[in-house]
Amino acid sequence: MSLARDVMTIAAVSAGAFFFLAGTVGLLRFPDTLTRLHALTKADNLGLGLVVLGLLPQAASLRDGLKLVGIWLLGLLAGATVSQLIARAARHGQLNR
Amino acid sequence: MRGPSGKRDAHTGVGVGASWRSAASRAAWFLCLWLVLAGASLDDIPAATIAVATATWTSLRLLEPGTSRRSPRAILRLALLFLYQSIVAGVDVARRALDPGLPLRPGFVAYPTRLPRGLRRNVFATLTSLLPGTVPAGEEEAQLLYHCLDVDQPVIAELDQEEAALARALYND
Amino acid sequence: MTEFLTVAVGFILAMLALGLLSILRGPGDADRVMATQLIGTGGIATLLLLGTAASIPAAIDVALTLALLATFTSIAFVKKGLSRFAADGTASTEDE
């Protein structure tokens, strides 16, 4: 039983680390602010979600698990809100106002 | 812990019964949140009561109880669609970032939305910021401007689908 | 399991550092706000992994606080910057 949980943790956390890698590669390679914003918000949010998913089987109690999910939801909401605010600011910056 | 302008009832158009019911359901949600964050302990009762009351009061001031019918099944479907699309979006960005040829055709796409300006349009913009390849970058009159990683993707059709799902779930009036 | 989680922490921290370097050279203010977002998501993931690997339950609460603070920092920063522009209507009118 504990083996199955460990396998799930290793798989999900590895996948999460992969998306953090992809997000950073996107930050390094994408040409301008707005495309880098895509890389940052989308890949990293998925990475965080997978890390949380991977840690759920290791959570000590139901409450700890719910807290983890809550942190992920907060991160998702933050990414969705902040990314459009940054995009607006970047677009105005492009127009040189 | 009361705000400067007292506890005058801000929402006049909504019936008293409905506003009490939404206050009670929000208080129940905040109580659950407290139990998850702080745990259940007898010593916490005064702090928890103050926190839940303040949170409920603040939320009622900032977001008045809605009048439109909400269908739990449509909300669940919207949540699943949202989750699925945020996964697709992450995979899409990862694929483009790691591809040696860097397949990007960035640009802006204007989407004519039927949602009124204000809260509803903002909710829609927030939801769609997690769609694959799009980030809302501002609005011009009845149009939302999206920055896209690939302007050849069927962005408008996807946004249309998302707007319909949102309207079914929350704004079915 | 502890070894694996520790390696994962190191890897994500390295990604975080590289990302911060690339943002540092970014030309505009928007790029710098993105650094807050990056520290937000990457830092939360690191704290959660570290908390589980070293069995420090309080790290989860630290991660939660970081999530809240990073969000409000970004929103405050962008709102302040945005209020310089009049074109976006309601959000910026009070500053004019």
From TrEMBL, chain A:
The chain crosses the membrane at residues 7-28, 69-87. Pfam families: PhaG_MnhG_YufB. GO terms for molecular function: sodium:proton antiporter activity. Keywords: Membrane, Transmembrane, Transmembrane helix. It comes from the Bacteria. The keyword Coiled coil does not apply. PANTHER family: ANTIPORTER SUBUNIT MNHG2-RELATED (PTHR34703). This is Monovalent cation/H(+) antiporter subunit G. It comes from Bradyrhizobium niftali.
From TrEMBL, chain B:
It is found in: Cell membrane. Signal peptide: none annotated. It comes from the Bacteria. The keyword Cell membrane applies. It is a multi-pass membrane protein. The keyword Transit peptide does not apply. Keywords: Cell membrane, Membrane, Transmembrane, Transmembrane helix. Belongs to the CPA3 antiporters (TC 2.A.63) subunit E family. This is Sodium:proton antiporter. GO terms for molecular function: monoatomic cation transmembrane transporter activity. Its main location: membrane. GO terms for cellular component: plasma membrane.
TrEMBL record, chain C:
It is found in: Cell membrane. It comes from the Bacteria. It is a multi-pass membrane protein. One of its GO terms (molecular function) is sodium:proton antiporter activity. GO terms for cellular component: plasma membrane. The chain crosses the membrane at residues 6-24, 36-56, 62-78. InterPro entries: MrpF/PhaF-like. This is Multiple resistance and pH regulation protein F. The lineage of its organism: Bacteria, Pseudomonadati, Pseudomonadota, Alphaproteobacteria, Hyphomicrobiales.
